[in-house]
Design a protein that fits this description.
Length: 255
């Protein structure tokens, strides 16, 4: 029996007079990857922040981590954020810490992996999996945008979360690094059964990763379904959006 790990039920939120989301409903089941798409400013990143309690909805019901988190306190969300982590578009790395120290940070501060040797082994394994071991002693300022994203994913994986939220993981990244990041997200689902939500405007990335696509437009869900169903849609707005990137090379690490 499937389990809805994330779900929005008639969720609305506004900032002043600007209605960002208006009765939005969708779901992502455990072990699946949901991709949220749409033009800039339609509430894609806002949706991620609502899931983790960084923002509160004006109305509606939110399921995160398989639990109804509507009205949760900050303390309750702090526990949820140990099971569901987020990779921000900026990477959000600590400038004064090395790559290895950034990845170790959640383990050291949470106190669950206090053994120094265990922390070192965990960090080394994650840096190796993300192919950034060579940068272990570097500071974030010395890294490319793509490498920062890889380090941010390694840090998100440090506590072995059930789910990961990605905010534009391949924006401003070269094609080779973009392919590496997309392959990794796919591997985390197929091999480690991580539930994921990926915010992106990149149609190639979405096609590669999505079990379901949530397409937002003017504060509402313009489409919710599989990629095949999206490609088959006769809606002119959706078709134009899909065609806009047709001249950009696909993210294919085998090319």
């Amino acid at each position: 029996m499937s389990e809805r790990y994330f779900e929005f039920e008639d969720v609305s939120i506004s900032f002043g007079d600007h209605q960002v989301l208006d009765r939005v409903s969708f779901y992502v089941e455990r072990g699946e990857t949901g991709v949220i798409m749409g033009r800039s400013g339609v509430g894609k990143s806002v949706s991620l922040k609502l899931m983790l309690g960084f923002l509160q909805p004006d109305s509606g019901r939110i399921i995160a981590g398989g639990e109804d988190v509507t009205g949760w306190t900050e303390r309750q969300f702090s526990e949820l954020r140990r099971r569901t982590t987020m990779v921000f578009q900026s990477g959000a790395l600590f400038d004064s810490l090395s790559v290895a120290e950034n990845v170790a940070f959640p383990l050291v501060t949470r106190g669950e992996r206090a053994d120094h040797g265990e922390v070192e082994r965990r960090v080394a394994g994650l840096l190796d999996m993300l192919e950034v071991s060579a940068f272990a002693d570097r500071l974030p300022a010395d890294l490319s945008t793509g490498t920062k994203r890889s380090v941010a994913i390694a840090r998100a994986l440090a506590e072995d979360p059930e789910a990961i939220l990605y905010d534009e993981p391949t924006t401003m990244v070269d094609p080779i690094m973009a392919a590496h990041i997309s392959d990794l997200i796919l591997k985390l689902k197929t091999k480690f059964h991580k539930t994921s939500i990926v915010v992106t405007h990149d149609t190639h990335l979405a096609k590669k990763l999505a079990d379901h696509v949530i397409f937002l437009n003017e504060g509402q869900v313009a489409f919710f379904g599989t990629w095949a169903e999206l490609e088959a849609s006769r809606d002119s707005f959706l078709r134009n959006f899909l065609q806009q990137d047709e001249m950009i090379p696909a993210l294919d690490s085998t090319a």
